[in-house]
Amino acid sequence: KSDTHYELLLLEKWKHLKHARKVLDAGCGRGQLLELNPYDAEVFGVDIIESDVKDAKKKGLKVSVADLTKKAPLKTSSFDGIVCSHVLEHIADPDIMLNEFKRILKNDGTLVIAVPNFSFKRFFRDPTHKRPYPKEALYRLLTDYELGSVCLLAPGDVAWESDLIALNLIRQGNASLCSLQSVAAKYLVNENREDH
């Protein structure tokens, strides 16, 4: 895929962080997401791969080596936004990492998680992939950590504006005409079909 396509995928993640002033990229690699920074947020990155962190530092980015499956060297409630893109599938037991996200994310913060498409036929060809996450499983996993605050949309998904408004109202603790479960159900219906 082209660099332009990849940049568009990164910008899609930023769309969810328009109002975040301080953003962490958990699994930042060489810092491509941090470099884009279209909303001029204060950005930080962590990654477990030292060579990637070194490359990101050469670009002048604030990054450090950290293993988020252990206690992170980050302050509680210190980020408005966290991006975790294509990391979760590499971790056998995500509990510690998700608890760390909950700890370091402000109460009204936004967590953006991206994982490979579950039906992607080459998923297990990557020996570092530990487990796939179909939307329904990811939804259940995340709502264990913060009930009522999860919205899952993959690149290419389309959401009704009314659903996004409802999800925002629910996230803010306000009354909504529909429940989180009824909105999420619309986007889970076709997840079991096989891609050809």
3D structure, described in words:
The protein is globular. Strands 3-2-1-4-5 form a 5-stranded parallel beta sheet, sandwiched between helices. The protein contains 7 helices and 5 strands. It has helices at residues 3-14, 32-36, 50-58, 95-104, 135-143, 161-171, 180-188; strands at residues 22-26, 42-47, 63-65, 79-85, 105-114. The chain has 196 residues and is α/β, with parallel strands linked by helices.
Short recap of the structure:
By secondary structure, this protein is of the alpha/beta class. The protein is 33% helix and 16% strand. Strand 2, helix 3 and strand 3 form a beta-alpha-beta unit.
The H-and-E topology, N to C, reads as HEHEHEEHEHHH
Derived structural class: alpha/beta
| 3D shape | globular
Q: Could you tell me the strand content as a percent range?
A: 15-25%
What is the distance, rounded to the nearest whole angstrom, between the alpha carbons of the first and last residues?
19 Å
Q: In terms of per-residue confidence, which ranges show pLDDT below 50 for 5 or more consecutive residues?
A: 186-196
Report strand order across the widest sheet.
3-2-1-4-5
